[in-house]
User: Which sequence fits this backbone?
């Protein structure tokens, strides 16, 4: 299972540390009441503190109620070792905790995500995929990528790695609704939603209370969060899931590295005369354009270009925009690619092709034409950002708060879901051995796991962006060679597909 992979050794430790597992069932006031003092006054104080119930104290405070933040809450609610935790969700959206419905007959929203099989498995584990299936979504098992020069193309097929699908395109609002619905299904999970913004955060220390009361010492082991609503809440662990402009990252003092791409992405929904069942991506001189199936004769456009072009395409008439889309994908810039030398003589070069997968014999296909724009056109700037650290004492970053990537492979939200899974598992393992879930050594295990995966994907996407931004004869030939290699060298193709769909990488030649 994706959500939890607890081995027998950890389970044995659970039995040996049963008392550690029950801490989440005890209120903080019970802990305070048990801190000894021989005086009646002290006991009365402890009893009075207990009567307040400490409703503003939580094990985990998640700042940000978007897809990744709710994914973490869903993961915590589903794991045996974490489902008893008290979780606060802080988000300024006043409707976050309300039951919502999604109008099924409306045209698709332009904000979509391509979720990988690994992400789909996670959604199934937490009970969210059943809700996705009740709304518009589109599985795809084929993908075609090609260059505007016409010198090369690559087709990918799920059968190349023995799978049924490469991914599924889903509207973001459907993903969010589905995760929330699965969370609301778990009536016994202790969650509280605060419709507010984080204004400040204090990471307290016992050094601040060298002669403090038991209550002071207890609070010193919690982070204090001040909210725009006037509420003050406390938590053992604060998780920043509040996006690329993260307030948690800012107030906790995390440093970042990165750069702007001097590119904007235009996104919108278009309609076809027939249903699109393939994902398409063409690299143009100004950036890639992707056509992603979303079901019911609709597709999503993600088109990268310079800011001036983005402004022009956002404001042009619908007819002109449809013509521009079809020119970019079907008619313009260069000839359609044809099969290569390797394709014609692949059988005689099996020592190179390494056992040709099914898609090797698939010829170039022309994508379906757009006939209508059915949503607003939205534009946003593109950048790369990576936090130098993901964790500090009592603080962890996940999703866009920790990293943002170029959208050319649709991997951003999958990286965020991977963060949520890994952090939930780290918290569960910490509980299994009686650790404080906000302690830095425990949080570092999450950081080590996710940094490797995220930096590797960021480096690949950034390299693609730079390589396809150069229009120069020798570079064009190198790109064509790369396309042909990805199309006809079997082990390389399987490696790429497995990595992009969230599976483990294949050996290059096996």
Assistant:
């Amino acid at each position: 299972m994706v959500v939890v992979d607890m081995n027998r050794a950890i389970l044995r430790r659970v039995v040996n540390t049963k008392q550690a597992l029950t801490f989440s069932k005890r209120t903080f006031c019970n802990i305070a009441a048990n801190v000894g003092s021989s005086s009646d006054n002290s006991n009365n104080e402890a009893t009075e503190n207990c009567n307040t119930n400490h409703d503003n104290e939580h094990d985990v405070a998640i700042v940000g109620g978007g897809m990744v933040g709710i994914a973490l809450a869903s993961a915590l609610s589903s794991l045996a070792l974490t489902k008893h935790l008290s979780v606060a969700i802080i988000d300024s959206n006043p409707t976050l905790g309300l039951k919502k419905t999604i109008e099924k007959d409306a045209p698709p929203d332009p904000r979509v995500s391509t979720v990988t099989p690994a992400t789909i498995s996670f959604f199934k584990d937490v009970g969210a995929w059943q809700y996705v299936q009740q709304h518009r979504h589109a599985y795809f098992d084929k993908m075609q990528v090609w260059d505007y020069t016409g010198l090369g193309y690559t087709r990918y097929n799920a059968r190349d790695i023995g799978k049924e699908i490469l991914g599924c395109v889903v509207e973001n609002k459907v993903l969010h609704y589905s995760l929330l619905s699965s969370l609301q299904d778990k009536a016994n999970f202790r969650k509280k939603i605060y419709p507010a913004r984080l204004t400040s955060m204090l990471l307290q220390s016992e050094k601040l209370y060298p002669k403090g009361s038991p209550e002071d010492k207890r609070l010193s082991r919690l982070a204090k969060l001040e909210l725009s609503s006037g509420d003050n809440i406390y938590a053992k662990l604060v998780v920043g899931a509040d996006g690329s402009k993260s307030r948690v990252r800012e107030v906790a003092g995390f440093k970042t590295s990165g750069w702007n791409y001097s590119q904007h992405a235009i996104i919108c929904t278009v309609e076809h005369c027939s249903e699109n069942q393939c994902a398409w991506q063409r690299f143009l001189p100004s950036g890639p354009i992707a056509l992603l199936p979303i079901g019911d004769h609709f597709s999503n456009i993600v088109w990268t270009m310079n800011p001036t072009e983005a402004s022009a395409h956002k404001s042009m008439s619908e007819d002109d925009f449809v013509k521009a889309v079809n020119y970019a994908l079907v008619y313009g810039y260069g000839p359609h690619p044809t099969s290569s030398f390797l394709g014609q003589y692949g059988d005689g070069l099996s020592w190179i092709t390494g056992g040709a997968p099914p898609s090797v014999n698939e010829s170039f296909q022309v994508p379906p034409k757009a006939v209508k724009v059915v949503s607003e056109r939205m534009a946003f700037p593109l950048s790369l950002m990576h936090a130098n650290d993901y964790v500090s004492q009592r603080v962890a970053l996940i999703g866009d708060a920790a990293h943002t990537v170029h959208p050319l492979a649709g991997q951003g939200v999958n990286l965020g879901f991977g963060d949520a899974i890994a952090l939930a598992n780290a918290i569960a393992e910490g509980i299994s051995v009686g650790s404080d879930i906000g302690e830095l050594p425990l949080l570092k295990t999450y950081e080590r796991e996710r940094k490797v995966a995220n930096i590797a994907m960021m480096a690949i996407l950034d390299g693609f962006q730079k390589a396809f931004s150069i229009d120069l004869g020798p570079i064009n030939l190198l790109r064509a060679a790369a396309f042909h290699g990805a199309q006809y060298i079997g082990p390389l193709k399987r490696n790429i597909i497995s990595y992009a769909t969230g599976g483990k990488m294949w050996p290059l030649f096996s």
Notes: The chain is about 35% helix and 25% strand. The two ends are 26 Å apart (CA to CA). The longest strand covers residues 256-271. Confidence is low (pLDDT under 50) at residues 1-53, 341-353, 506-510.
